[in-house]
């Protein structure tokens, strides 16, 4: 028989006292009692059980003795089997009193109804005690059996391991088929070589350190889900864990650290159903010679090593993908929080602007005021929250399949990067998430050049609040589908928003809006609802602006006409759509959209111009007033000034000679 443990017990024999008494233990059988009794014990006693006599009449006067049967053997039986006694299948409910047999070394009580171990404390030379298949509920009465080497208590009713303190020479301990839930009180059994705890109620293997001689441990048919301390057993060679609840290699990781383990069984566990089971075990336990009762070949070891390396690479890649997904999730959460904080700050500023006078509001009958200190503290709180999240990315750009996802306003900058031709042409859908629509408007023109095949736009949490914002989409190259998520886009709550989109973007010939196919009836209804709007807008437009729009429209038509001449006669759908893009009517083109920032810039520019004009006019008025004052003063002073001029001239030329000398003197002075 393969893998058998040979237990050698030195005992005296009738034929040859110097010859050792030998037992052979077959590991493939589930119970120790069958293995350890593969010797001539039953052969010697099978025909002699009738020779054993029980005397219940002459026990002496002690009442404590009269309650137990007394065992008596004939002199011939004692001579033939002086060191052995078997009382198998005798229907015993108690252990009989064995008097005058102090020299016994082997005692067998198999297949009885004994409930308590007793009346054997005087057998201090006992080496082998078999109590298999009884009804014993507690280990007791063994403290004096210091020579005991083999104790078989399988198939009883034990719930706890106890009272083995004095059995330090124990070599084999069989406790299978009981109700034991915990391994305990065996750390002192340093000589124990075989321990059988199969078919119990164990869930964790622990408290087995100190069993330095243990070579075989049987834990089959339990509920074991975790193993500890096995790596501390220096001599353990065989470990049987079949039919338990072990589901992952981490539960038995300590086995990989055992250098002595050569045989292990894990069949019947959830882990054994995994595809990586055998390869992983062989890779981490290179010292194994058998797995699940099958010998391991070198080829299997080599294949296991290769398979484990591949599995580790797969796990690393899977772990990497998991980390990337988690990072993406955290980044999106951070962007969403920043978006929420931004929206709360905007709402707070708007509420403060509408209530500048800090008017009280009644709450439950009491007046409550909004103080500036409170608003500043809330703003500080929001800022600190943003700073706390700044360790994460504030935007995310991801290309998944044919869709480009842009999270956060910072993601719009990615449109300026150098995209590969393959990626740029593969993008069909562009999704904007957690980005202000006014910021998106500024980069819509870039979609024409960066992603020429993009035909589907998605908006989620972009603050689409007014129908006129859809006017900005007219500057895109082409659109076949438009998706506006209700989340973060209040404009979707308007009943006629889809019809306005169809009216304003009629030149794109939209196919779907929010996943719903556009019908001809929808187009007719859109024209009926909003057709007059274009004419009203164009009639109110200044003449110079109308001429500019007409020129732009003609330029586009001429541009597409030139493109059409340069192409072959068989144009595809894309060319047809582009041609339609050039056909945007001038009346609809008057319906445009200015972003808030652009509007504010225009207002600032108009304000500056108004101020400049006012200053210029004021300066002109002031200068004209000064000139008028000077003119009025001159008119008043001129008559007197003229008289004085005439008088001075007459006086000077009255003496001609003197006047001439004076003039010559002045000329001479000027020359000098």
UniProtKB/TrEMBL annotation:
Q: SMART domains annotated for this entry?
A: LRR_SD22, LRR_TYP
Family matches, as InterPro entries? Cilia_flagella_integrity, Leu-rich_rpt, Leu-rich_rpt_4, Leu-rich_rpt_typical-subtyp, LRR_dom_sf
Q: Does the keyword Hydrolase apply?
A: no
Keywords (alphabetical) are:
Leucine-rich repeat, Repeat
PROSITE patterns recorded: LRR
Q: Does the keyword RNA-binding apply?
A: no
**Pfam families according to UniProt:** LRR_4 (PF12799), LRR_9 (PF14580)
PANTHER family in the cross-refs: LEUCINE-RICH REPEAT-CONTAINING PROTEIN 49, PROTEIN PHOSPHATASE 1 REGULATORY SUBUNIT SDS22-RELATED
- Please identify the protein, giving its name as recorded: LRC49 protein
């Amino acid at each position: 028989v393969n893998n058998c443990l040979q237990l050698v017990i030195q005992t005296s024999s009738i034929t040859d006292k110097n010859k050792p008494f030998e037992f052979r233990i077959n590991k493939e059988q589930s119970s120790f009692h069958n293995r350890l009794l593969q010797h001539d014990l039953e052969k010697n006693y099978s025909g002699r059980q009738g020779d054993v006599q029980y005397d219940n009449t002459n026990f002496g006067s002690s009442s404590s003795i009269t309650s137990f049967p007394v065992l008596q053997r004939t002199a011939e039986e004692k001579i033939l089997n002086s060191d052995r006694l078997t009382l198998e299948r005798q229907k015993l409910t108690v252990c009989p009193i064995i008097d005058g047999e102090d020299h016994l070394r082997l005692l067998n009580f198999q297949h009885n109804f004994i409930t308590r171990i007793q009346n054997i404390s005087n057998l201090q030379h006992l080496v082998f005690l078999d109590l298999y298949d009884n009804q014993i509920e507690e280990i007791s009465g063994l403290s004096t059996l210091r020579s005991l080497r083999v104790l078989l208590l399988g198939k009883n009713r034990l719930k706890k391991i106890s009272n083995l303190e004095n059995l330090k020479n124990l070599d084999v301990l069989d406790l299978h088929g009981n109700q034991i839930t915990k391994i305990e009180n065996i750390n002192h059994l340093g000589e124990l070589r075989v321990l059988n705890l199969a078919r119990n109620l164990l869930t964790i293997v622990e408290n087995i350190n100190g069993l330095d001689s243990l070579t075989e441990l049987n834990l089959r048919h339990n509920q074991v889900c975790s193993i500890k301390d096995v790596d501390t057993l220096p001599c353990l060679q065989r470990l049987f864990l079949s039919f338990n609840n072990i589901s992952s290699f981490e539960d038995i990781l300590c086995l990989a650290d055992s250098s002595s383990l050569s045989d292990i069984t894990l069949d019947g566990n959830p882990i054994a159903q995994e595809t990586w089971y055998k390869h992983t075990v062989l890779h981490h336990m290179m010292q194994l010679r058998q797995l699940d009762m099958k010998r391991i070949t070198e080829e299997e070891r080599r294949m296991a090593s290769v398979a484990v390396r591949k599995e580790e690479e797969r796990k690393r890649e899977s772990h990497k993908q998991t980390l990337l997904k988690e990072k993406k999730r955290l980044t999106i959460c951070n962007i969403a929080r920043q978006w929420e904080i931004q929206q709360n700050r905007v709402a707070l500023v708007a509420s403060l602007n509408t209530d500048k006078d800090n008017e009280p509001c009644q709450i439950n009958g009491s007046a409550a005021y909004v103080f500036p200190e409170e608003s500043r503290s809330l703003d500080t709180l929001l800022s600190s929250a943003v700073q706390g999240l700044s360790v994460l990315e504030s935007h995310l750009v991801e290309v998944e399949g044919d869709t480009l996802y842009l999270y956060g306003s910072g993601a719009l900058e990615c449109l300026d990067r150098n995209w590969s031709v393959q990626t740029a042409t593969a993008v069909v859908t562009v999704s904007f998430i957690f980005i202000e629509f006014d910021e998106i408007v500024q980069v819509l023109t870039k979609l024409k050049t960066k992603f020429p095949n993009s035909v589907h736009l998605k908006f989620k949490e972009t603050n689409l609040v007014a129908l006129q914002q859809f006017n900005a989409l007219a500057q895109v190259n082409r659109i076949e589908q438009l998706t506006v998520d209700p989340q973060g886009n209040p404009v979707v709550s308007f009943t006629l928003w889809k019809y306005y989109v169809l009216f304003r973007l009629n030149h794109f010939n939209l196919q779907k809006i929010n996943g719903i196919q556009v019908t001809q009836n929808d187009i007719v209804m859109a024209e009926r609802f909003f057709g007059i709007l274009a004419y009203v807008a164009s009639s109110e437009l200044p003449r110079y602006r109308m001429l500019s729009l007409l020129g732009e429209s003609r330029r586009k038509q001429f541009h597409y006409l030139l493109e059409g001449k340069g192409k072959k006669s068989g144009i595809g759908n894309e060319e047809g759509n582009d041609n339609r893009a050039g056909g945007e009517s001038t009346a609809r083109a008057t319906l445009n959209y200015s972003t808030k920032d652009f509007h504010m810039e225009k207002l600032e520019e108009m304000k500056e111009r108004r101020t400049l004009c006012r200053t210029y006019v004021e300066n002109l008025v002031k200068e004209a007033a000064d000139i008028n004052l000077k003119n009025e003063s001159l008119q008043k002073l001129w008559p007197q000034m003229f008289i004085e001029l005439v008088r001075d001239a007459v006086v000077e030329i009255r003496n001609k000679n003197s006047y001439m000398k004076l003039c010559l003197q002045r000329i001479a002075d000027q020359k000098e």
